[in-house]
Amino acid sequence: MARTTTQERVKRLEAHLKQENPVLAGVVQSFRQLDRVARKLHLMDEDDSYATQVSWWPVIAVLGTFSAGKSTFLNQYTGQDLQRTGNQAVDDKFTVICYGADDAPTVLPGSALDADPRFPFYRISHDIDQAAEGEGRRVDSYLQLKTCRAEALRGKIFIDSPGFDADQQRTSTLFITDHIIDLSDLVLVFFDARHPEPGAMGDTLKHLVADTVDRADASKFLYILNQIDNTAREDNPEEVVAAWQRALAQNGLTAGRFYRIYSDRAALPIDNEQVRERLQRKRDEDLADIEGRIHQVEVERAYRVVGTLEKTAQHLRDELIPRLAEARRTWRRRTLTVAAVVYTALGLGWLAWSTSAGHWDGVRYTPIADLDSVSRTVVGVAAAAVLIWLYFYLRRLAGRSVLRALGRDQSLGDDRDAVVRAFRFNLRAWWRSLATSSPRGWSRRQRRQVEAALAEADRFVQKLNDRHASPSGSAEPKKL
Ligand SMILES: Nc1nc2c(ncn2[C@@H]2O[C@H](COP(=O)(O)OP(=O)(O)O)[C@@H](O)[C@H]2O)c(=O)[nH]1
Ligand SMILES: [Mg+2]
Predict the structure, then answer these.
(1) Which of 71, 97, 387, 440 is least buried, going by the fewest C-beta atoms within 10 A?
(2) Cα–Cα separations (whole angstroms), residue 269 to 171, 225, 232, 329
(3) Which residues pair with 98 in a beta bridge?
């Protein structure tokens, strides 16, 4: 059978992960195993995969004002000259940056992201269209994808953004910014210490700070005052920082997650030795914190993906299969009830009719008494055939009524389509006995495959622990 496009993509995903994170490549294999089980049960379309429902990479977004040093930070972090930098607004696109096997950085247009479910912008053009009509076609002017073989990019996706200015932003850009904020695991919000008047950018602060501090996922935002080296030339460097802290506090950010850094590469020389040392120490501390957080989301994401594998397998075994078995039992009950009623009615009706027609002579049934044995057999077989056909007819009627009930069953939630599809597949197997409640396609082999996926999930957690747990045993990562 020709492999469908989704399956093709999942294959590519696996190949990609083999280079980047072999543990997760194994997880893709387990997802594909579950896919096969689900397809066998017809719970899943041929062109579908559990693997596409997982976000495989943690997303780290870098947002902030124009020329705050976002691109410089990413270049430094990756050790590559990936993004152009400069004080003029050099790029007005969102750039998704991820690991690629090629030595030379590769740039792909936004439509590549739009079409690829591995990335967080899958079908974004459709969403952009909803926010700003007609703009979806221009997805290439909003987004691009850069891949590059940089160790620092392994296992994560960064998003560099054009400078944010709430007053000048177009609906579509605002929409993408909000979309990015929603899907990111970590958001670095950059401000620029060169502009010591944070009061002048009220709307921007509102969007990037006030609107973010009360979110349920507020802890994923890190607010970074960059280019702190510039303050060295001020008479009172601390005052610049204090002004920012006040502005952020006015926008609701009172505690923590406020960092002060600068880029070694881009910084101006700091003459005052004392000031230099102080700024640098603070910078090193804060940078270590930020990098720690980046590493943490990567680790958490890996655990979460394995957790999703485990949940998917358990859900299949403990919810979907029992629901289908239950549906089969209802089907059997209804079939038996209907058959009992219909056969009894038929029997009684026939008895009444034949009695009144005088077919019974004592204990003999006269209409067949005169037939020869061949004809008797023919009549008997014909009668049995009609009764058997009737049974299958009633069985199908009962099955259809169960199918309709499943289609209306709100308690199935997101599983409804899958369960309906799988049950319809059961209905078609007229030869399978209703005595078994085991869903069609669910044999010992399938059960073993699901158990194997669960066992694998445990092994993956072990492997991740081996990789990420600190050898001293002090910080055993939680199983998420
Ligand atoms: N002095 C100083 N300049 C910086 C720093 N980071 C970036 N720059 C400069 O600021 C300008 C804007 O940087 P860029 O990374 O393009 O900003 P973006 O618009 O936020 O991506 C560039 O000329 C950088 O060289 C820093 O920490 N200190
Ligand atoms: Mg930039």
Answers:
(1) 387
(2) 40, 18, 9, 79
(3) 147, 157
Pocket test for ligand 1, best of 72, 161, 228 (most atoms within 8 A of CB): 72
Residue 88 DSSP SS3: coil
For residue 238 the two structure tokens come to 């601390």
Residue 17 in contact with residue 2, Cβ under 8 Å?
Answer: no
Token pair of 293 as six digits: 């957080």
Q: Which pLDDT band holds residue 347 (cuts at 50, 70, 90)?
A: very high
User: If you average pLDDT over every residue of the chain, what do you get?
Assistant: 88
Which residues line ion ligand 2, judged by CB < 5 Å?
70-71
Q: Which residue's CA is minimally distant from atom 19 of ligand 1? A: 67
360-361 and 364-365 beta bridge pairing: antiparallel
Whole-number percent of the chain with pLDDT over 90: 48
Over the stretch 388-443, which tens digit does the pLDDT of each residue have? 999 999 999 999 999 999 999 999 999 999 999 999 999 999 999 999 999 999 99
User: Ligand 1 centre from 87 Cα, in Å?
Assistant: 7
The mean per-residue pLDDT over the stretch 90-119 comes to 84
User: Contact, 438 vs 320, CB < 8 A?
Assistant: no
57 vs 116: CA distance, rounded Å: 14
Q: How many helices (H) and strands (E) does the chain have?
A: 16, 10
Distance CA 61, CA 184 (A): 6
- Please report, to the nearest 10 degrees, the dihedral formed by the alpha carbons of residues 394, 398, 403, 409 taken in order: 170
- Which residue is closest in CA terms to ligand 1's atom 12? 67
pTM confidence score: 0.78
Residues with beta carbon inside 6 Å of ligand 1? 66-72, 85-87, 90, 163, 226-227, 229-230, 262-263, 266-268
Task: Return the residue whose CA atom lies nearest to atom 22 of ligand 1.
Answer: 86
Q: Which of 43-52, 93-102, 204-213, 219-228 has the lowest mean pLDDT?
A: 204-213
